[in-house]
Write a structure and sequence with these properties.
The complex is a heterodimer. By secondary structure, chain A is mostly helical. Chain A contains 14 helices and no strands. Chain A folds into 2 domains: about 70 residues, no CATH class; about 220 residues, MetI-like fold (Orthogonal Bundle), CATH 1.10.3720.10. In chain A, α9 packs antiparallel against α12, α10 packs antiparallel against α11 and α12 crosses α13. The longest helix of chain A is centred in the middle third of the chain and has 36 residues. Chain B has 2 domains: about 240 residues, Rossmann fold, CATH 3.40.50.300; about 60 residues, no CATH class. The longest helix of chain B is centred in the middle third of the chain and has 17 residues. The model of chain B has no long low-confidence stretch (mean pLDDT about 90). The chains are: A mainly alpha, B alpha/beta.
Chain lengths: ~325, ~325
Amino acid sequence: MASIQYILKRLLLMIPTFFLVMIIIFLLVRFLPGDPAIAIAGDRASDADLEAIRERLGLNQPMLVQFWLFVTNTLQGDLGRSILLRAPVIDVIFDRLPTTIFLTLYAVTLSLLIAGPLAFVAALNRNKWPDAVIRTVFQVGLSMPVFYIGLILLTFLAAQLRWFPVGGYGDTFVERLHHMFLPSVTVALYTSAIIMRNLRSAIIEVLDAEYVQFARAKGLPDRLVLGRHVLRNALISTVTLLGLSIGNLMSGTLVTETVFAVPGVGRLMLEAIFARDYPLIQGLTLTFAVLVSVVFLLTDLFQSTLDPRMRLT
Amino acid sequence: MSDTQPILEVENLCTTFTRGGVALPAVRDVSFNVGKGEVLGLVGESGSGKSVTLRSILGLSRRYGDVTGSVKWMGQDIAQMPERKLRHIRGRDIAMIFQEPMTSLNPLLTVGMQLTETLKAHTDLNRAARRDRAIEMLDHVGIPAAASRLEEYPHQFSGGMRQRVMIAIALAANPKLLLADEPTTALDVTIQAQILDLILSLADELSMGVILVTHDLGVVAQTCNKAAVMYAGRIVEQGDVRQVLRAPRHPYTVGLMRSVPQNVPPRSQLYTVPGTPPSLEALPQGCAFAPRCQSRTDSCMATRPPLESIAQGRSVACFNPVTDAQGAAA
């Protein structure tokens, strides 16, 4: 288990991380080809208009001053105004973020529900036919692009069979579960393939461990040997993998949200990039950085709860 | 003691693993008995099939290979018993302790949990009673401040203490037979004697039978009633421990005895049995020990000598058994 002190320390360590992320975002936007003022005002704007925009955005100031303004504004929660949506970036993000978090958690839950039992079946029937079937199916899942799986599901289950809505988000929790099922399954098919592969080999390794043999020699029922002794130990590496692949998961939502017209930050990012909405891109990148850091911290905390040898101090 | 009805009768036990399409006969035609309160020493080199024999008795080898022959526990054959029924014998009637205290306890569960789950599986004790019994057991195997250590994890214990914990877990449900797979090999020499003493005094106290797997003949001499010597998956000699060790009949047993340094001057070369054990994939047609044996004949290479009784409770598998005079000279 981790102490409060450890969590505080980790949170403090995030400050330099975010500082670095902010430098990178700042430079990235400044060194991108093209003038942000032109991007905002359009190609046919007059020189005077452009100058006014540059003045308003502070683009005429020296770089260091610009960076200082960027940092202080960000710390005050001011990420600028979205050019595309004509609203404060921070409001736009907070409006869309819950949808994406819901989608991600939903997808992770589904992945575990799909991958967990199948990994057990595959591992316990190692190199026999159930193992071969499960691994082949997941291999196919892994090698198909996310948007393609999404389109297939959309065509058959939503458009033709009408089991699920084609798009949208829904209002109540149950409605959301229904609306977000196909997008989540799409993301989950990919992640569950990764989890299945990892969990299967982890289970196979743990099954042969001496402490599992000892647990059997003690006369424990199979249910306890597998659930208490095998699963917990096998989960450690899988949880790490899941935490580390949160970046992949996030970029997965980018495509999925677009295919299923889900109003989350993933689709927002794509729209922002197409519209060259720099403030919004900056804000979203920073948001992703925060999310990934938080997930990494949660992964480490979860691991230390699972494994007493990983006492975090 | 050994005259009473045996509690465990192993007959023609064979365990075969298959690796890459090749059959590996790890244990072949192993037969022996263990009586109530009797200590049997199973001796041999690494890879001679001692550990696999123990694991096959408890049905732990079946998921890795093919096990045939009969294992009678109190007259009931458990070799082919389904897991569901067998689990009630494991841990309750026959318990086992493993060689590596570092890897044989689950690193993620508290010692208390690993102790009480055995009790939960085999007794009707309630939660509080299980806890009391766990403390009693830890105390019994010599772990100081037992009550305060229930909530601790294996990595907070030293190697010797972990081995004590394993013994406490194994004996928690009062088994009648303990299978001890080289329980002291991984420990410091100073701790080894303590752990052995502990196992034997507990066995005596609970009148529990013990099968002690070891490659240490000194240990066998001090602790066992009976000894069985294994080579390449087969028992080559067995009998009363004093007879086997004082008057060994099989050349391999003689070789093993000579390998124990006794009264050797410093910096002198130690005796080793020449050659190496055969690979299980390519066992010789005749006696597996013949290629390393100094008294082999042509018939040893051609046919395998059967394990034959030479006296009451004493048998040897050799065409040219060592005589007393030869044994003494060696």
